[in-house]
């Protein structure tokens, strides 16, 4: 999705795209990171709103109108004076099922290329976020969360078969890192993984890599795109997760007598 600086335009456009995807048969629809605001630390406090709030009300109504799950990308959320990068999730009846506040905030400095520090205006979330569908359990991260294998591993342990990351990789890291990270999380945990990015806008302060992609539990790229706006469609088969786990039972072969990934705070 191409995102502009005008929140109302972004919301209207998101609804149009969701309606189109639903008409074409999508049952679970994912928006990109920061779909109602530019991805810019100076914009986050200005665009921030509560959840529930105006943007989430529109997504709830759109989920209900189309009878689809919506993973609402992310929006700057304000709560108690703190601003979060938050992904709200809606059921087909328009209920706000859960929300994920980005747990790992971007703090990168590649000299001469990119310096970006979300903590300049955001606070990190401190919750694991999953929800159940009739198809499978789904785990949510937001973009930079993808870099941390522990989160994906914990979601796998919690029973998720599909991990979803609304995202916005950049022109420096995206070309080299995004697809390998998606494939690694998928193969490590034998789950489907999707990252949904905003379209590239060369005039934005942060230029997104784009390339929204879905990877299978076997590590294959099932669906992807370039950097312009489009809807990427993909069939997810939760039974295939079980098949891969039967053929390669690595999850039960971990040497948990020697190491483990421990949840310290829920
Ligand atoms: N929006 C983000 O979290 C950016 C992540 C990113 O570009 C990376 O390299 O990681």
UniProtKB/TrEMBL annotation:
Homology family: Belongs to the carbon-nitrogen hydrolase superfamily. NIT1/NIT2 family.
Pfam families: CN_hydrolase
Species for this entry: Mytilus coruscus
Family matches, as SUPFAM superfamilies: Carbon-nitrogen hydrolase (SSF56317)
All copies of domain CN hydrolase, residue ranges: 1-238
Record lineage: Eukaryota, Metazoa, Spiralia, Lophotrochozoa, Mollusca
Family annotation (Gene3D superfamilies): Carbon-nitrogen hydrolase
Keyword annotations from UniProtKB, A to Z: Hydrolase
Record's catalysed reaction(s): 2-oxosuccinamate + H2O = oxaloacetate + NH4(+); 2-oxoglutaramate + H2O = 2-oxoglutarate + NH4(+)
The protein, known as: omega-amidase
EC number(s) recorded for this UniProt protein: 3.5.1.3
Keyword Hydrolase: yes
PANTHER family membership: NITRILASE-RELATED, OMEGA-AMIDASE NIT2
InterPro entries: C-N_Hydrolase, C-N_Hydrolase_sf, Nit1/2_C-N_Hydrolase, UPF0012_CS
PROSITE patterns with a match to the protein in the record: CN_HYDROLASE, UPF0012
CDD domains, sorted: nit (cd07572)
GO molecular function, one term: omega-amidase activity
GO cellular component, one term: mitochondrion
GO biological process: asparagine metabolic process; glutamine metabolic process; oxaloacetate metabolic process
